[in-house]
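Hello K.,

You asked for the raw outputs rather than the summary table, so here they are, unedited. I folded two proteins back to back in the same session to keep the settings identical. This is the first:
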Amino acid sequence: MKGFGRCCALALAACLALAGCAPALPPQPTLDELLAETNAAHQAIDNDGLKSEFIWRKPVDESGEPISASEINSYFTDIADLESVDPDLVLTQEQMIEDVTYLFDAIYSCYGNYDRMGGRAAFDAAEQAILKECAQHASLSVKEFQKLLVPHFSFVKDAHFQIHGQKTNPCWYPFFFREVAFYEDDGQYITENHKIVASVDGYDDLTELFKRSISPKGEIVYYPVLLKDSTTCDETLTIHYTDGGTQVLQCEPYDYQEQFENADQLAIPEVRYNNSIPILQVNAMQSQTDSDWYEGFQEGANILGGSPIGILDLRFNCGGQGAVVVEWLKNYAKTLVPSNSLFINAYSGKQMNSVRNLWVSNDNILIILTSKWTASAAEWMIDTAYNLENVLIIGDNTSGEMVGSIAYVQLKNSKLIMGIGSKENIIPDTNDYFEEFRGFYPDLWAPAGEAEELAVKLMENLGAVQAEGEAASPAA
């Protein structure tokens, strides 16, 4: 019956269009309506029972005795002490086998997500497969050896687990189709010219394809967005309308990588303004011991927390120290904001953050800008901000680096640097909240390079701030 009613509605819309009486576009939501809808979606994340999913990591030696903390720590190398790598250095078969054995001993002893990623059965199988492949080569260069290793770890769904900087799985990048803006009305997608989408070739679920976004005018619209496990996409979308028309849309290239590579990761955070809205750009989560950085970071929290609207720009932020995230939000909200996820040391059981199903009130609006480079501790900021009222996340989907942590193990012969962390992060799995390598979805999708301007336009269009150059209304 529901399908019959939808068919009738489409038929009626087509008849109205043919008769020259096109249906009106749906009204734009008010600011209060947008915030209410977003708050409800954020509050719907259920993090009850995460502690019951925690897996203690208790590695033992060949005699069954617990491996000591000092032995575990002996595998790790401080970042300042890491040796350089010669990718063209030739390794003998014996050297490769020695490195593989050392690597899997380190993984067993040091990796906090060892059991969560399949445990001994999965890692032993990977080790045997790698050793078998090494046996086929009398020698390999270091770069060839790295290339040999990577495919065998695809079962490790942890973006912090890396083989000399290379992840075990591809990340998922957003591709926007913005030639036409669509307005949503009860599951239907309508163009400005009142053409109603009937179908899209290859995509049955239109609500999954069309993402809520922001037009150049600051209106809330919907654009098709595809996620691809590559930074290139040549796919087109064929749209069929109820009036019988067809339109082919081209995707925009993903071009944010160059901007990220040119960003100063050590920049001291400093508030700037865009149409009276304070913006704090934070390019990394540095340590509290960096006093100049930390002072600018927390001063930004005070300024944004005291403003009706504030923007926290995390588009260039690949992470760092998670502890400063907690302090920033506490300073912004003037109270502790708990996280949704449980970040815990798999060996000691020490909880690294406060996890409660608690909603923190906030009279102001905090906009967080994201990109595919927003990762790790910066994603922890988003995970925690989900429990704060009136937060809008605008930009790309994030990097997807949350389930673990990173420390460095350097192999003896190849000198390849392995990212192996002792932390375990347990993330709510409700409402498609987060996925490793895919990240968090934004509340409003916007290409990262345009996210700030579109966020400001949205606030102008919703009447939260006055558009630049616009005369103020005379007093009554």
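The second followed immediately with the same parameters:
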Amino acid sequence: MASNSTGSPTGSGYRWGKIVLLVSIIIPVYNTEKFVRRSIESALAQTYSANEIILVNDGSTDRSPQICDEYASTYPRITVIHQLNKGVSAARNAGMDAARGEFIQFLDSDDEIESTMTESLVHAIREQDCDLVVCGYVNRGKTVQEIRADSNVYEASEFMARAYTTPNLAPLTWSSCNMLFRSLILRDHKLRFDSSFVMGEDGLFMLEYMSRCRSIYVLNRVLYNYYQYDPADRVSAITYFSPDLYSLRIKYFERLYSIVSSEISQDLERQMLRSFFNLVIISLVYMGAYAEFFTNRDLLQRVKSIINHPYVRKASKVYKRSRKTDSAIIPRLIRMRMAMPLVLLIRSRGKKFVVRNGKRQHIRSVYRENRSLL
């Protein structure tokens, strides 16, 4: 049996020629001809060479498909899947269907990974005997920001709850790209990305995966490079505003609460509810900031749905302002179920938000017809 670079046995795995194939690196590709070479090269440069690279061309209209085919013709361990444009979730699902590795790793085609990422994650998942490894990442835009947390092993329920309430853990769960997954768990539980969502597709997928984990390990190393681009640089960089996003946040909390509430302390449960309620307040103000995407009637109905939701009612009972600058009026109106005054208030607060923070002029709305999560 072959050995990996850490000197420990590689275990079962699959074979690609003489190479023991352990990790499948899945890269969805859509109109990223300017960046995809860098992404692929970073996957090829991994110090842990027991991997396959699966490129899923999601109906690109630029030269991305040709670039993918060029690499596949040069490197036998690269596979290319060409499909009609179905979105990043469907592309990742297609990659998982084709994957043969014991572990799954995701990489976006406009990002790159450090050369030791795969090796570090594989070593950690074996050393800790856990079902998920989460590492740090760096945001590279106009400013550079490292996102990381102290190395630690968590029981799954505790990690999910603390990731929802702890500022330094939460950003680590916003993407599936800074993680290493076990293929067996994905297959046994038929876990998929929900392609009906344009935004937030990672969250529900990871929640379902983590709920099947025994333990989760946070690795205090920055190994993933997440690039933020000017929208002129690429088509898929356009920021979407989706009215469904708020419904998705509530759906996410419903599922999270149903998984962990019976396994965590009352104090941590209250922290979760308060964090959720704070997110509801922020979401309402954000709706006011982008009120042009709603008719007056639609905005009123959405606000009514939110403030009457059982989990919002439950959270409103334990919510406390953590800062003097936090709104006192919005929580009061939610508790009193005063939808119309709340609509007027969030429109006013939304205008102030835009003045203070600006509005991304390139944002476009995405509507999902005949679908309601509330």
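Confidence is low (pLDDT under 50) at residues 1-16, 234-238, 361-374.

Happy to rerun anything if the numbers look odd on your end.

Regards,
P.
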